[in-house]
Design brief:
Layout: E1 11-15, H1 20-31, E2 35-40, H2 47-53, E3 58-62, H3 70-82, E4 87-90, H4 105-133, E5 136-141, H5 154-174, E6 179-186, H6 195-198, H7 201-210, H8 223-230, E7 241-244
Parallel strand pairs: 1-2, 1-4, 2-3, 4-5, 5-6, 6-7
The structure holds D-gluconic acid and calcium ion (CA).
Keywords: Oxidoreductase
EC number: 1.1.1.127
Protein name: 2-dehydro-3-deoxy-D-gluconate 5-dehydrogenase KduD
Length: 251
């Protein structure tokens, strides 16, 4: 592999790595040579098998990021495994689909806690460690709803706008300290998150008709962007939100 993109010798912490986009990005980083620490809810996951089948090294940590004591603990546990974390992908996220007037307090706060508050706390904890060693790559997972309001997903849209804000504000502070903070904004991806809208024929057709590539994205579609933003190839890229969306944002 072109050395600029190599992650040989690097250690990556990926949240929500047990399936979907997190699993796809974890596999991408492993293919580029990184040791991956995947954090997720307890339960079955085939990420370890998949990464080991690629010849990669994978460590699994169990975490429930709805508990805001967990990010600090997770950061400590992850750093303890090899003594370092060079790459952080804040991917774990949830969504609640309901008209705003029917939202419960939990529909608001649980999404904000996982998608926004836990993201900041993990950035802070791992960021401190990266600042100390003078280098690091943080990749936050944003969304098309970092730009748009979406339909009946108000806490998700708010949290994803916040992810873009966290990314830009930390980039302003940490770019001079060797820590690159960027985000990936996936487009409409065929994962659990979008199953309800893919199961609604009208919504599915209207989304597909707006995607210039004419298809839903897959976890593999994020691998190139993740490797780029995790590697030396992006050393002069800071505070950027990279849309990987088959053209959605321009359409
Ligand atoms: C929606 C979708 C989005 C996607 C994705 C878009 O209802 O508009 O579910 O929320 O999940 O984040 O990038
Ligand atoms: Ca607690």
């Amino acid at each position: 592999m072109e050395p600029l993109f190599s992650l040989e010798g690097k250690v990556a912490l990926v949240t929500g790595a047990s399936r979907g986009l997190g699993q796809g990005m974890a596999m991408g980083l492993a293919k580029a040579g990184a040791t991956v620490i995947g954090a997720g809810l307890s339960g079955s996951s085939d990420t370890k098998e998949k990464i080991e089948a690629l010849g990669g090294i994978y460590h699994e940590l169990t975490v429930d990021l709805s508990d805001l004591d967990e990010p600090v603990k997770l950061a400590k546990q992850a750093i303890a495994i090899t003594g370092r974390v060079d790459i952080l992908i804040n991917n774990a996220g949830i969504i609640r689909r309901k008209p705003a007037a029917e939202y419960t307090d939990a529909d608001w706060f649980e999404v904000i806690n996982i998608n926004q508050n836990a993201v900041f706390l993990l950035c802070r904890e791992i960021g401190k460690h990266m600042i100390e060693k003078g280098s690091g790559k943080i990749i936050n997972i944003a969304s098309m709803l970092s730009y748009q309001g979406g339909l009946t997903v108000p806490s998700y849209a708010a949290s994803k706008h916040a992810v873009a804000g966290i990314t830009k504000s930390l980039a302003n502070e940490w770019s001079s300290k060797g820590v690159n903070v960027n985000a990936i904004a996936p487009g409409y991806m065929a994962t659990d998150n979008t199953a309800p809208i893919r199961n609604n024929p009208d919504r599915k057709a209207s989304i597909e008709s707006r995607i210039p590539q004419g298809r839903w994205g897959t976890p593999e579609d994020l691998q190139g962007a993740a490797i780029f933003l995790a590697s030396d190839a992006s050393n002069y890229v800071n505070g950027h939100v990279l849309c990987v969306d088959g053209g959605w944002m321009g359409s």
